[in-house]
Amino acid sequence: MYKIGVDLGGTHIGVGLVKDNKILSTYYTDTPKDRDFVKTVKAMADAINTLLEKNSVKLSQCDGIGIGSPGVAEEKTGNIVYSANFGWHDAPLRSELQRYIDLPVAMANDADAAGWAEYLLGAGRGSQSCITITLGTGIGGGMVINGKLFSGGMSGGGELGHVTLVADGRECGCGKKGCAEAYASATAMVKMASEQLAQHPESILNKVEQLNAKAVVDASRQGDELASKVFADYVNYLAHLIASIINLIAPQVIALGGGVAGAGEYLLEPLNKRVDRLILNKKLPRARIVCATMGSDAGILGAALLEL
Ligand SMILES: [Zn+2]
Fold it and tell me: Is the N or C terminus of the chain more exposed, i.e. has fewer CB atoms within 10 Å?
């Protein structure tokens, strides 16, 4: 039997056909520009049907559909309780999709779905508790604790990106101040660099075509003073977030994904050192901090493998 995974994104809807924990085929379509709920679910259903036709797979050969969606997905009701990005409130995603496709539908937040794949098949494989932190435009968190996806006792928990790192600190996209996302996302790294560019006319970052996190990391590797300072500050903020997670949950694995994790050992080495100094129980074994290994299709695969 096949499983179908859906990764609902702001610009694209990705669908994948999964068998034996592997993605056999994917298909991508544009998310409707206005992100209208009915139109978006229709686009999702069309994408699934296209994927099945492309692979000559019938609905009767599929166990069900798993959806990773932005916002707060409530498994019990099948609703997206709230999505700031999509402007959805109490959107009945499961029942709307089932109007087009008669299959069981499991749901999770998109970062949770990616974290689930990482736990099952990626960097967290073999652990019982694995926290996946995606360091991209924002910060996504997928928490698996004792073998179960954890998003809180009530819906909407597990928002690692919006844990306060600095009280009344930098403004976050969510409207709050001082969130981890405002300090430890790729966007935050770029912002910290661009704010200091004028005081550092000698920095090679003044000449790069596109100032992004990779450019900052590359310049830091080359010894650029500004970039090195920004990167060191970034590592410190991220280390504080990770040390707090370790103090709170003590998972076995912390997997870092997203653009910044592309820095690999250059990030992990100073980060591990800093985390060692910040954690409470220095004498105890602590979480392995590693790069996520599942890549960009983790969301589709994790969604497909959600429990129906
Ligand atoms: Zn925030």
Answer: N
Ligand 1 centroid from CA 139, angstroms: 9
What is the whole-number distance in angstroms between the Cα of residue 161 and the centre of ligand 1?
A: 6
Predicted confidence pLDDT, tens digits, the chain (308 residues) = 999 999 999 889 999 999 999 999 999 999 999 999 999 999 999 999 999 999 999 999 999 999 999 999 998 999 999 988 899 999 999 999 999 999 999 999 999 999 999 999 999 999 999 999 999 989 999 999 999 999 888 888 889 999 999 999 999 988 999 999 999 999 999 999 999 999 999 999 999 999 999 999 999 999 999 999 999 999 999 999 999 999 999 999 999 999 999 999 999 999 999 999 999 999 999 999 999 999 888 999 999 999 98
- CA nearest neighbour of 3 among 47, 66, 60, 54: 66
How far away, in angstroms, is 237 Cα from ligand 1 center?
15
Contact in structure between 120 and 103 (CB atoms under 8 Å)? no
- Gap from CA of 3 to ligand 1 centroid (Å): 34
Q: Using the mean position of ligand 1's atoms as its centre, give its distance from the Cα of residue 46 in Å.
A: 34
Structural contact between residues 122 and 254, judged by C-beta atoms closer than 8 angstroms: no
Domains of the chain listed by start with CATH number? 2-115+297-304 (3.30.420.40), 126-292 (3.30.420.40)
Conformation bin of residue 147: beta by default, left when phi > 0, alpha when psi is -120 to 50: left
CA 159 to centroid of ligand 1, rounded, Å: 9
Q: How far apart are the CA of 175 and the centre of ligand 1, in A?
A: 6
89 CA from centroid of ligand 1 (Å): 19
| C-alpha 213 to ligand 1 mean position (Å) | 19
DSSP E strands, the chain: 2-8, 12-19, 22-30, 62-69, 72-74, 79-83, 88-91, 105-109, 130-135, 139-145, 148-149, 253-257, 288-291
